[in-house]
Every structure is written in C-alpha cells, then in structure tokens.
C-alpha cells in the first residue's frame, strides 16, 4: 500500500479527535462560547466604527483648514489637535483586536498580505524623515507616503496617527507640555503648503485604512467577521484570548511601558509630540476590559466573564479583579509621561508605572490560564506559566 | 459514545495514527515545522523575525524588549540631549542596527543605480594578515567603506553598483537570466583606493535564530569538516578559526558571511563600531582610520571612560540577538513541499545546508539541547569563481563562504519586501541563488538544472516553506 491521501488521513484523524474528545476541538465549554464570540465581533465593529468616525471628524476639519487656513489658524489648529486626541484615544480601544492576524494586522486572509496597522499607528517616528519629505518638494501623494513608510528603516514612519500628530504639534522640546508648533507653519506657500498637503493626504489615508477594518468587522457581509464567526469556536476563542493576553503583558506592559522606563528616553513614548501617552495606556487597558466584560459604551452583551463564571469561576474572579486593578492603576499614572521618564529610578512616578506593569503581567498569566481551562491554544509572544 | 465503543475506537485510532505516521509520505524525517525546536514560533507576518523565543520565560522578556529598543535606537551625534544614545560616527554606514537589519531581516542592494547603500556595505582590505590572522585594513579607509559621516566630517566615499545581464537556459530549454554586479567607488575623500585593494560587498544578514547557532557545540561543527575531501564527495567544509578578543584566543568562527566572528557579543560590538561608530567595552577605540583629521577631532559620546554603548545596554542587545525566535515552517502538508525536501536531500544540497543540528549546554537555558533545522553546517565552502570576492579573512579564502542558514528564508518577501539573496544580494530569487552556486556546489547545481520543471518548482516550494 502506498501513501495515504492527505484528505483521507485528515478525515480519519478528525474522526478520532471527536471520538476521543480532544479538548482543543471538542470541549463543550468552547461550544457554549458562541454568544461571547458574537458579542466580541459586535464590540470590534463598534470600536473600529467609533475610531473611524472620529478620524472622519478630523478629516473634515482638516479639509476646511486646508481651504481657509488664514483667519483664525490658531483656533483651527487647536481644534485639529483636540480631534486628533479624540480619534487616537478611540483607536487605543481597538488595539485589543490585534496580535492574531485579524483584519488590522492582515489584509486579506487568503494571501496573508499585510494589514493596515503599520500605516495606521507606527512609532517611534523619526521626525526629520517627515521634514525631509516635505523639504524635498516632491508631490506629496498617498502612493509616495505608503512607499516611503518604514521602507529602509522602521523609524522612517510617514503615515498614520503619529505622522499627523507630528504635523499638528511639532517636536516636544517642552518639559511640561506638548510640542508647540506654530500655526504659522501651515500658512502660505512653499513648505507650509506642502505641510498642509501632507496633513490632508495622511489624514485621508488614515480614514480609508480604518474604513477597511470597519468593513471587515461589519455585520452581514461577506467579510472577516463572517469567517471569524464560522470558525470552530475553539479557533476564534483562541484569537480573542491571544489579543487580550498579548496586548496586556507583552505589548503594553513590556514594549510600551517597561522599555520607556528602562531607556528613560522620550523616543519611547508613544504619543510624544502631543504628550498624550497616558491617554493611550488608559485606552488600551479599557479596551481589554470592554472585551472581557462584553460591553461597549451603552451596549452590554455576553462577556468572557459570563463564560468563565460557569467554566472556571476561580479564574474569572481573579481576572475581574486584575482587570479592574489595571484600570485603576492606569488612571492614577502621572501626566505627561515624559516627565516620569525623566525622574530617577525608584521615583514615586516610576513606581506607579511599575505597579501597572506588574498587574498587566498577572493579567496575561491569568488569560493564559483561562485559555488552558477552556482547552484553547493561546499564542502569546512568550511563556506565561 | 458508550464506554465499550470508546475503548474500541481508542484502539482503532491508535492504529490509524501509527499507520498515518508511518505512511504519511516519503518526506525526509527531518521535515518538521519546528525549525528551532521548542523555541520555534508559529508566525508568518511582517514580524516573523522579530519575536522572542516561544519558550522564553516572562521574567526575561523585559530584557528582550529593551534589547530590541537598543537594536532600533537611532544614534545621534554627540553631545546630544539624550546622553545615553549619542556618539554616532564620526563615520558610519547607518544610524541603527535595524536600519540595515530591517525588522530583524535581510538587507538588499540598491534598487536603482545611484541610490545609496541602505542595508549593505563594502568591506575593504589589502593583502596580508595581522598577528592574530585578521585582515590588513586599507590605509586612510580602514576595513570598510563608511558611506556616511556626521556634520563637518567627510564620508569616506560611495559605492555605485551596476549589473550585467547574463542569459542562459536549462537543459530542458527553459531560459533564465542572472544579473552580475560590478562596483565602482566614487567621491573618495582620501584619494584613490590602492591598486591591490580587496573588497567584499555584503548585505545585512537576518538576526533571528543566532542564539541557537551559537549554542551548537564547536566539536559538533568541526566533526563535519572534511578539509581534504577525504570521502571524495566533492564537498570539503572547513572551519574558520578567528580571533576572540574577549578570550584572547583563536576560536571557531560562526557569524558573518565568512564565519568571521566567533560570538554574538563580538559580532554585535564589531558592527556597532564599524557600521554605526559606537564604541563598547569590547571595542573602546573609535573607528577612525589614520589620516582622517576631521574625524579624529570630532566629539565622542563616551563619558567618564564609559563607552558609548554602556555595558548593560550591550548585554541587553546581545541577549536580544540570542533570543529572537525562528519562525515555523509552513505548508508542510503539501506534497510538492515534501517532494522538494526529498530532492533537497537527493541533490545533496543538504551536504552543506545540513538539515539537523543539536545544541549543547551553553547560553540561555531555553536554547539548550534543542534539535534544530538551520540548514547550515557553519563551515566554509568554496563557492566557485563567479561568487568569489578574492578577499581572504582568517582561514576563509577569497572564494570560500560560510553555508548560509536557510530557516525563515521563505518569509524574506513578507518581512523585507524583497527577494534578494547571496552575500551581495545579486540573486533576485531563490532560484537565481541556486543557479549561482559553483565550486563545491557545482554538482548539486547541475543536478538541479537537470530536474524536470515540476521538480525544480517543488524544490523551490520547499525553500519557500522554510
């Protein structure tokens, strides 16, 4: 007898899995998670939709500013900055939907092409690179910005929230507040004119990129959401927990907070131009809470807490407490973050950040335990046992 | 399902599993997704080379992420407000590690003539050896062409790459073209390069999996050496013995295109100095060739005798390069991939691109005793005249190169948005890279060319799955 055909083999192995009740595919708890997955998809849609609408509000204001930037430029730039802050805080709530090759990280699931994330929220950003693009006098187009983005150096970020943030605030050389770009940088011809053009092109691109993710999660279409909900629940549940676990301990705890403390450098501050990094932290932590408790704004659906309360109440109690503690610790952080980074090791400000880092690590460990209890495989960047 | 039925099913299934494993296919036994053993991470996106070992304990993660931060640091001219990260240059190639090793991946030659070298550099020397066996630097230029410099200091020069197209065909009549580079050095700040200059253009190598390669015992590597080809298989394989500055001894070279660096610490500190102009405790003296007056007068970022790259930063950086995970192989259930793997072995590609090595007991404990599939023997092989750079380095002759690891190679396009391979990036695809193989690999290349179109495609599909 020759080689067994792959399909036939898969069929037999699949039968065996069901017969032997292998947890990864067959756990009953996982089958009961369908309401949670439905809620998760709803929260993802509403979160991206909110970020998209905030970005659109910024886009409209930018369009008006570009047409008529002279009379009250000061006020207009102030308004643009506020709209940026609203949009970015709103985007921070969506980052819990990253890290498992969903639509923000992966474009088309079929060819595994890159999703819009590197165009939307990349940092740290080498601001002189953006200045060079403006100074070069080349036509600033969407294609140019995409082509140049992080091409030869990851820090050569030309697109997304933080490129727009730099355009609006300028470099932050101010110990007690954000960057202080003069609105005059936008007035007149030459470089100012190209800076306006850059602002418009980058904002339009951001809106379209976010729109693409909204479409991927919107109800009743032939899209990612549909695929996500049609997956074996163990697979989609693994994605949910992977996003929760990776954002908490790895991305926010280590990459964003611990690294900044250890370098003491403003470069490691996510929103360094606008001094709104703490708002980003608060938003990430809230995004995790939204998914775990199954809510978004006034909407209340089936949370992960309800699922675990049945399957593993002890882990649920610990997770609930930990998530609330992380929210409390995040809210208590000192603003602006760069002033904390400038303090000596052991300062009260740094200690408060360290407490949040510790809480986030515990949170990730608990998410992994929740995954184990439900029999689903979670891929976090590392071991959390 | 009743207990009896369950028991019966259990027994039947055990049989099915055993049969399925025994008869799955004729693929080589080493074909598995976990190329890096327990350290392997199943990831296939832009960050596929940038993640920590899958089994790295959480208490080490902070060191990893900080090392990543050092790797990404854009060094600035001293003195700067950010004291910890100043001291760039005075001459340099790029301002950060990640500028060449973008997303911890592979560099490439310029895309168009006249574009500066971004993730590639040119090593220089004149004939001869130094007391410890190393190369002799070029007077006024040093051991590599630094194409950038800080303000007020002249850059050493610029490399212009040109290509000639070569057309040929497979025995079955399928045509192919290769491009062969030539190099010109222009804007030379300190006069023409000497007539007997030796130069070697090199793209940045991927950074992941290096801790595992460092953890392979020296004895296991030299056991595969066959300098005189005593088994008459046409493949020799020689270790490079290089100078370890920390041990003050000659040890096995493992890293770099010619296995010219003995350890990740020395590799990293050497690159920090040579490529960025950053001093460390291992290389405390600035990289300034004699006669470069403006460079010699430039301010340094070293404060109170502490080097520009502080020791704890250096430790984190090295830890980072030791603990970047190898991404898992993908699509191994494909029959083409399995056939390709079999052909890889039959054509004796695996004679040098050794499929399986086992790590020893050194380094971080997650790296120990791992069965890994790097597809390298870490030895030097003569690759023929067409690929020769004519620039000997320690034991490596001008036509010898270290077998390049192949793990992760199929993700190059995903991570680095290009498919340029070999030491100078001349190959525009893995197929072209195979076709450039000469010297000890001549027989394998001929065998590849004589395969059917389908089998050639299968072999390449296997490489893409890595």
Walkthrough of the structure:
- The complex is a heterodimer of chains A (385) and B (466).
- Chain A contains 17 helices and two strands.
- With 385 residues, chain A is mostly helical.
- In chain A, a hairpin with a 2-residue loop joins strand 1 and strand 2 (299-300).
- The two termini of chain A are 45 Å apart.
- In chain B, strand 2 and strand 3 form a beta hairpin.
- The relative contact order of chain B is 0.17.
- Chain B contains 13 helices and 13 strands.
- At the A-B interface, helix 1, helix 12 and helix 17 of A face helix 1 and helix 2 of B.
Topology:
The complex is a heterodimer of chains A (385) and B (466).
Chain A lengths: L5 H15 L2 H4 L1 H4 L2 H34 L5 H20 L24 H4 L6 H9 L6 H7 L12 H9 L20 H28 L6 H7 L2 H31 L13 H17 L1 E2 L2 E2 L3 H8 L1 H19 L5 H5 L6 H27 L11
Antiparallel strand pairs in A: 1-2
Chain B lengths: L2 H21 L37 H12 L18 E2 L4 H4 L19 E10 L5 E2 L11 E2 L8 E12 L5 E12 L11 E6 L6 H5 L3 H5 L18 E4 L4 E4 L11 H13 L16 H5 L13 H12 L12 H12 L10 E2 L12 E2 L7 E3 L17 E3 L9 H5 L13 H7 L5 H8 L3 H13 L1
Antiparallel strand pairs in B: 1-4, 2-3, 2-7, 5-6, 8-9, 10-11, 12-13
Helices of chain A, by number, come to 17
The percent range for strand residues of chain B is 5-15%
Record field, number of beta strands of chain B: 13
Which regions of chain A contain 5 or more consecutive residues with pLDDT less than 50? 1-26
Strand order of the largest sheet of chain B: 3-2-7
Largest sheet: spatial strand order of chain A: 1-2
Structure keywords:
heterodimer, A: 385 residues, disordered N terminus, B: 466 residues, alpha+beta, 3-stranded antiparallel sheet, two-stranded antiparallel sheet, 13 helices, globular
Summarize the structure.
Chain A has 385 residues and is mainly alpha-helical.
